[in-house]
Design a protein that fits this description.
heterodimer; A: mainly alpha; ABC transporter involved in vitamin B12 uptake, BtuC; 2 domains; 20 helices; 68% helix; disordered N terminus; disordered C terminus; B: alpha/beta; Rossmann fold; four-stranded antiparallel sheet
């Protein structure tokens, strides 16, 4: 299938549909140019100067004086020229490219097949990749080291955990950061950083299992009464759960330190008697901790994916009633997914709190849940490599844009990228095979909604 | 196997079958949806090796009865007995381990899995699935063997129904509950599916099926129960029901003389 065009206009019906829907390309050429120019001016305004309150037209003026308009108009005219006069050439080029790659959907699989095809190669490549990842922080500036630890590392852990909940078990969780917060506050509590004294002060490494258990319990507590819900309903409930955790952190000052949070928390330290090491301000050692955990977590998760547990999750995602009819304990496996996701998030929280050496509620606003969710979707729900690459890329992008565009606009570009991505490649960067199939079938109208738009309450005849 | 009816004649009276050899027995089952009482005291028995049909109009409580038997619904009062042991209150995913297979209403195949994946999922309850089971399903439903790689959402309705039955068989059930296997299918396909059901029964699986298609169901079944607004109004051997003028009038669209 070379695909996109061609199929239209074959039958009278599609011609009618075309009249109704695709009006803009039936317009005369000059009108299309006009529309593009208007868009260019709009983009110049959007990406241009900030407004100033006491000089209303400042931004407008500046934007027309500066080169911004020129660039955008240039782009608009170029797009217009190419679309109007070189369309056939472009289409031919694209279809040739696609043919060579064996269709758009197969591109990824083909290349990854070549990369990881044989066992030896596969392990070699993974080993080399790991080595690169270990050395990577030593080759970049301190700024990027910080980004790598505070953002990329943290979000990768979150996204990998969230992927279990969303990508594998098919539950839309918008309150994921709540567990991250619980992990971080556990770290603060058990290292004696909160106003309340813990029974015993623990080293941060020992806090990790404690935080995992705490998050497991919290995950089950949240999950047990709510997992009968699905889709949007579950999303709202998890959102509510996040608000509860957030507001408790903010307002229960006697325990959590309120809005100011807690400062001067213990960092990681290791004392083996003959050798001891204290983690300090240098971000790189934290990165190695994160990397270690991510590797362990991924190995565990990939084993899960192809086990009975993973199959049960897939079945639940497809159809809960049918899953139960084949003997899958739906409640237990949904709880399990939730708890696994929560505890991953908790580990990330402990590392984060220890690295920052402070916690406060503003580190755990709901925006971060949504960002984590968009990273998962961008990378490819259900695909661990996709989630890793997608998260790293999306976290990297705004930092990369920092010096290149108006810093205030950075997330606008991120948003635009997400929109474009969802339109042209909804399966994500490196999608899982199953997700690809799901979206293709949803497009063909087979089996209604996709996994996240499922019926409420699962069971309805 | 000859065409119409397994010549088991009128056999033992329906109630008598309940006593000793009953594989499944429902006793005075009451099920409510909120304030609405869907089942008002249903009692029935299914003996080992039998085919039993539940007939009735829309809303009579057929599917509800089946759901109560398969653990998808908990009865308010009453008992579900499997080989004389109470199993009501046991969740459906656990009942599967007791040897009850369930083909849910509307087929509900895993639409985005392949045929083979669906069948493998059907054997989920077995730690070590028996490869012979797959062969058995494929010999019952040759069309599934041909389409084993196909994504099941793209199968036709009849093929999906076959897949749903095949998937349930992969769990090696002793008792197979079928909820409207003929729903929305062309008459030819329905006949084909009922032939296969007969074959499945002949291989030793007991069947309890809910059907609107009374004539097909009664031709397959040994006995039948007729439900009306949550109660059993008639219970008899299938040939007797098939020739009963009231049944013919109500479900087979014949005008009584």
């Amino acid at each position: 299938m070379s695909g996109v065009p061609a199929t239209a206009a074959r039958t009278p019906l599609s011609a009618a549909a075309r009249l109704r829907k695709g009006k803009w390309y039936e317009q005369p050429r000059w009108r299309r140019l006009g529309a593009l120019l208007a868009l260019a001016v709009l983009m110049a305004q959007v990406t241009g100067e900030q407004g100033v309150r006491n000089d209303l037209f400042h931004a407008l003026e500046q934007n027309f004086k500066g080169g911004g308009v020129g660039v955008w108009v240039g782009i608009a005219v170029a797009v217009w020229l190419i679309r109007e006069f070189f369309d056939d050439a472009v289409a031919r080029g694209v279809s040739r490219l696609r043919e060579r790659a064996g269709g758009p959907a197969r591109t990824v699989r083909a290349t990854s097949g070549r990369l990881f095809g044989r066992r030896g190669y596969r392990w070699g490549a993974l080993g080399a990749l790991l080595l690169v990842l270990i050395v990577l922080p030593l080759t970049v500036t301190t700024f990027w080291q910080q980004v790598l630890v505070d953002q990329i590392g943290v979000y990768v852990m979150l996204a990998v955990g969230l992927n279990v909940v969303i990508g594998w078990a098919g539950m839309l969780d918008l309150g994921f950061i709540a567990f991250f917060a619980i992990g971080a506050y556990s770290s603060a509590y058990w290292t004696g950083g909160l106003p309340v004294e813990p029974p015993v002060e623990l080293n941060n490494f020992l806090v990790i299992p404690v935080a995992v258990v705490t998050c497991l319990v919290a995950g089950v507590l949240l999950g047990a009464p709510t997992l009968r819900l699905r889709g949007d309903y579950l999303a709202i409930v998890t959102l509510g759960f996040h608000e509860i955790v957030y507001l408790v952190a903010k307002n229960y000052a006697e325990f959590t330190g309120g809005t100011r949070g807690a400062n001067g928390l213990d960092r990681f330290s290791l004392d083996l008697g003959f050798w001891s090491y204290d983690w300090t301000l240098d971000p790189v050692p934290y990165y190695w901790i994160q990397l270690g955990f991510v590797v362990v977590i991924i190995v565990l998760f990939l084993r899960l994916e192809h086990s009975r547990v993973g199959r049960a999750w897939t079945a639940i995602r497809e159809d809960e009633v049918a899953a139960a009819a084949t003997g899958v304990n739906t409640v237990r496996f949904k709880l399990l997914a939730f708890a696994i996701g929560a505890s991953t998030s908790g580990v990330a929280g402990v590392i984060y709190a220890s690295k920052q050496a402070f916690v406060n509620p503003e580190q755990f606003v709901v925006l971060f849940s949504i960002l984590a969710l968009s990273y998962v979707v961008f990378g490819g729900m259900g695909s661990v490599p996709g989630v890793l690459v997608g998260t790293a890329f999306l976290v990297w992008l705004p930092q990369f844009l920092r010096d290149r565009v108006d810093p205030q606009d950075r997330y606008m570009y991120l948003g635009a990228l997400l929109v474009i991505m969802m339109i042209y490649r909804p399966q994500g960067l490196l999608p899982s095979r199953r997700r690809q199939r799901e979206l293709r079938m949803a497009g063909e109208g087979v089996s209604g909604a996709d996994a996240l738009g499922a019926r409420p309450g699962g069971e309805r005849g | 196997m000859s065409g119409v009816g397994l010549e088991k004649d009128t056999g033992p009276a329906p109630e008598a079958a309940g006593a000793a050899g009953a594989l499944l027995e429902l006793r005075d089952l009451h099920v409510c949806y909120g304030a609405i009482e869907a089942l008002k005291g249903i009692s029935l028995t299914v003996a080992e090796g039998e085919v039993v049909a539940l007939l009735g109009a829309n809303g009579a409580g057929k599917s509800t009865t089946l759901k109560a038997a398969s653990g998808m619904l908990a009865p308010r009062t009453g008992e579900v007995l499997l080989r004389g042991e109470r199993v009501d209150g046991i969740k459906s995913h656990e009942l599967v381990h007791f040897g009850i297979g369930h083909v849910p209403e509307g087929r509900r195949v895993f639409a985005r899995m392949s045929v083979l994946e669906n069948l493998r999922m059907g054997a989920y309850r077995l730690r070590r699935p028996d490869p012979d089971d797959l062969d058995r399903v494929f010999s019952l439903f040759p069309v599934l063997a041909r389409r084993r790689k196909q994504v099941s959402g793209t199968l036709s309705g009849g093929e999906q129904q076959m897949l749903a039955i095949g998937r349930a068989l992969m769990g090696k059930p002793e008792l197979l509950l079928l909820d409207e296997p003929s729903m929305g299918l062309a008459p030819l396909i329905v006949r084909q599916i009922f032939e296969i059901l007969k074959e499945i029964n002949a291989q030793g699986t007991t069947l309890l099926l809910v059907e609107q298609n009374a004539s097909q169901a009664l031709r397959l079944a040994d006995r039948g129960y007729v439900l009306e607004t949550g109660t059993v109004v008639m219970a008899d051997a299938a040939p007797a029901l098939l020739s009963d003028p009231r049944i013919r009038a109500a479900y087979l669209g014949e005008v009584p003389e």
